[in-house]
């Protein structure tokens, strides 16, 4: 059963009413076809109205939906011959980040992405998509491998943030993230990053120093969670909805600020409603992006990446 979000409650109530009328019509000798048709038209219009006018907090809730497609969900649909690679060759393997080699439209590529679970057991195994340092070091190892063999890199971002635990700090969490930022800036192959769910803090940015950064329509990308921001600003985490509106963390906001290149449209109701259709939308954007970056040589790729991030946040009085 798909989890219902608070703003979807009117749709649930109307759908329940339609179902009840259909059952009543089949059991009783009463023709309610006209009434059912009217309610179905009302449902369609209400659905469009709700999903075409989502507020920032609504998008946060969709981005966090437990059924939202993960990195491995997209890998199964978008890529061929995926071979997952493990370990950072230093400490161990972090299952909160997955990566490997695959083929995309005939082109060998390296895939790296945050990975959450779909149930409690898998979430515990994946540490709820919050990587330890060895996860980021695994990602960097695969990036360096991709550079060696001249493979483009596609990253999928979906994490609340890097794991803030004692063991992670002892093993160099901050250094691992900083190292990724430094090394990604100078990689000589095309890098494309896509925010497919939550993009939280440095834990997300460690896979986000790319030539092109795209976002799914209902994803979020921010320096801190709305709850965290509300706790700092107003000492009250329950004001997260207010914080989400003030922080400008949604895809339309970030597109307006020129922090991302493209917004990947989502199927009505969110990516979890139809992963195959959603993957087709994403495939179109990835194909276009990869084709554009393939025309650049190594020096141009590095310069383009540098200039992209250098202009973010530049103040102007104009």
UniProtKB/TrEMBL annotation:
Recorded metabolic or biological pathway in which this protein acts: Lipid metabolism; malonyl-CoA biosynthesis; malonyl-CoA from acetyl-CoA: step 1/1
EC number: 2.1.3.15
GO-annotated molecular function: acetyl-CoA carboxylase activity; ATP binding; carboxyl- or carbamoyltransferase activity
Keyword list, A-Z: ATP-binding, Cytoplasm, Fatty acid biosynthesis, Fatty acid metabolism, Lipid biosynthesis, Lipid metabolism, Nucleotide-binding, Transferase
Enzyme class: transferase
Protein name per Swiss-Prot or TrEMBL: Acetyl-coenzyme A carboxylase carboxyl transferase subunit alpha
Role according to the record: Component of the acetyl coenzyme A carboxylase (ACC) complex. First, biotin carboxylase catalyzes the carboxylation of biotin on its carrier protein (BCCP) and then the CO(2) group is transferred by the carboxyltransferase to acetyl-CoA to form malonyl-CoA.
Broad class of where this protein is predominantly found: cytoplasm
């Amino acid at each position: 059963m798909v989890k219902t979000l608070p703003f979807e409650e009117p749709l649930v109530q109307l759908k329940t009413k339609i179902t009840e009328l259909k059952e009543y019509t089949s059991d009783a000798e009463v023709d309610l076809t006209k009434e059912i048709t009217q309610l179905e038209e009302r449902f369609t219009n209400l659905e469009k109205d709700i999903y075409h006018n989502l507020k920032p907090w609504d998008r946060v809730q969709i981005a966090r939906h437990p059924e939202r497609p993960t990195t491995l969900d997209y890998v199964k649909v978008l890529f061929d011959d995926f071979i997952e690679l493990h370990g950072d060759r230093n400490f161990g393997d972090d299952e909160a980040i997955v990566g490997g080699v695959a083929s995309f439209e005939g082109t060998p590529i390296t895939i790296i992405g945050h990975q959450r679970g779909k149930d409690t057991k898998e979430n515990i195994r994946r540490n709820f998509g919050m990587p330890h340092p060895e996860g980021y070091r695994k990602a960097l190892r695969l990036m360096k491998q991709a550079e060696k063999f001249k493979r483009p890199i596609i990253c999928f971002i979906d994490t609340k943030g890097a794991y803030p635990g004692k063991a992670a700090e002892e093993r160099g969490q901050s250094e691992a993230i900083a190292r990724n930022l430094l090394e990604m800036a100078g990689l000589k192959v095309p890098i494309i990053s896509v925010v497919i769910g939550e993009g939280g803090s440095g834990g997300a940015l460690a896979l986000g120093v790319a030539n092109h950064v795209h976002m799914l329509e209902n994803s979020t990308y921010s320096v801190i969670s709305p709850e965290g921001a509300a706790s700092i600003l107003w000492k009250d985490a329950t004001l997260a909805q207010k914080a989400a509106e003030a922080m400008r963390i949604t895809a339309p906001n970030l597109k307006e600020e020129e922090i991302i290149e493209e917004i990947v449209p989502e199927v009505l109701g969110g990516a979890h409603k139809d992963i195959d259709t959603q993957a087709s939308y994403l495939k179109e954007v990835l194909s276009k992006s990869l084709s554009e970056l393939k025309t650049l040589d190594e020096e141009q790729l590095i310069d383009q990446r540098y200039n992209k991030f250098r202009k973010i946040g530049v103040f102007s009085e104009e």
